[in-house]
Design brief:
Elements lengths: L1 H34 L10 H37 L2 H7 L4 H43 L10 E5 L2 E8 L5 E9 L5 E13 L2 E13 L2 E12 L5 H8 L7 H13 L5 H22 L1 H6 L7 H29 L3 H21 L3
Antiparallel strand pairs: 1-2, 2-3, 3-4, 4-5, 5-6
Length: 354
């Protein structure tokens, strides 16, 4: 029986890999066409575009894995059913439960693959891809706004205009308020570099504001103590969905300590936890396509139905998460509800299989 389980798992994994390669080739070509719009901007040439696309492939694999798992499982099991291999297995005493166990093994392997790509490979390559693109186009590491970005550090509100390729800041403004929310000190610096757990400001102009008036002084260098560190700068540059869970947790704690909104980052955190589960659910949905109501349909019809369900899940999952963010739903519920709904559908359909 172990030989048959390995044979089923091998067929499903081979079909999943084939579907993933086809989808990846399609989306890579579309990404290449899209990037050609920025060709010639700065030093952004064909070589930079190809490097950028290569670095973003783990992101595409991660996004396409649930749909590829569903279609690959449908194709793998469907081809075995069309050649009467599954019928012969069941006639030899290999039960439907044994087939489901083989499918569960595949689901577990794909969950592990999703975790490795999502938490190990994807964050690193996505960060390099964005840095490469931004440096090639503008000469600086792009922030999430063309007007720079803001951070809060206790009673300090900080504005950084640019993040340079070496991790330093350009044109930094630090607004320090007292406990009565009155601006007391405004510090401007042309540059900030991180050294020995603090930032070294260069070409500093500091304005002290009190009841007597405004006092301005200039210094060449000054030390800036802040919770913001280069690791958190990467979080600001890269959208939350591309970050590993440990960076998300660290930044959520930082935002909570400074009484800032964390909904977007908590939603990204729970979405990343649910992604491997979604891949497994898609694999389990394939069994009813072979033994359920569609067992008499041709393989093309099964693939079409699987594609519609996979695409439907992807769209519903993305839409529900965005609606949850807009309407203030609990982040774990907004992230898990679509997956749990399709998991319930997979369980119900499997119970009806004979």
């Amino acid at each position: 029986m172990r030989i048959l389980s390995k044979y089923i798992a091998k067929n499903i994994l081979a079909s999943t890999l084939l579907v993933l390669l086809v989808l990846l080739a399609l989306y890579t070509f579309m990404d290449f066409i899209t990037e050609l719009d920025d060709l010639g901007e700065g030093d952004y040439g064909i070589g930079s575009i190809l490097s950028y696309i290569a670095l973003t492939m783990p992101k595409r694999i991660y996004e396409l894995l649930p749909v590829a798992a569903l279609l690959g499982s449908v194709i793998g099991l469907g081809s075995m059913a069309s050649q009467s291999e599954l019928v012969a297995m069941r006639a030899a005493g290999y039960s439907l439960g044994d087939i489901n166990k083989a499918v569960v093994v595949v689901a577990a392997l794909l969950m592990l693959l999703a975790l490795l790509i999502g938490e190990g490979l994807r964050p690193v390559t996505e960060q390099y891809a964005r840095e490469l693109q931004s440096v090639a186009q503008t000469g600086t590491v792009g922030s999430r706004s063309e007007h720079g970005f803001w951070t809060r550090d206790g009673n300090h509100f900080n504005h950084i205009d640019r993040i340079n390729a070496d991790g330093s800041f350009s044109n930094v403004a630090i607004y320090e308020f007292d406990d009565n929310h009155r601006l007391r000190i405004l510090t401007r610096a042309a540059r900030a570099e991180y050294q020995d757990d603090s930032w070294i400001l260069s070409d500093v102009v500091q304005s002290t504001i009190n009841e007597a008036g405004v006092k301005v002084r200039s210094v060449t260098h000054a030390r800036w103590q802040s919770q913001l560190n280069p690791g958190m700068v990467n979080i600001v540059v890269v959208p939350p969905e591309f970050l590993p869970v440990w960076d998300l947790l660290e930044y959520v704690r930082y935002l909570k300590d400074n009484h800032q909104s964390v909904a977007q980052y908590e939603l990204a955190f729970w979405s990343k936890l649910m992604m491997p589960v979604s891949t497994a659910v898609m694999v389990l949905l394939a069994v009813p396509f072979v033994f359920g109501p569609l067992r008499s349909a041709p393989i093309g019809g099964r693939i079409l139905a699987g594609a519609l369900i996979g695409i439907g899940f992807h769209l519903f999952n993305q839409s529900f998460q965005h609606m949850g963010l807009v309407f203030g739903l609990v982040p774990w519920l907004a992230s898990s509800f679509p997956t749990m709904m399709f998991a319930g559908l997979a369980w119900w359909l499997n119970t009806r299989v004979r």
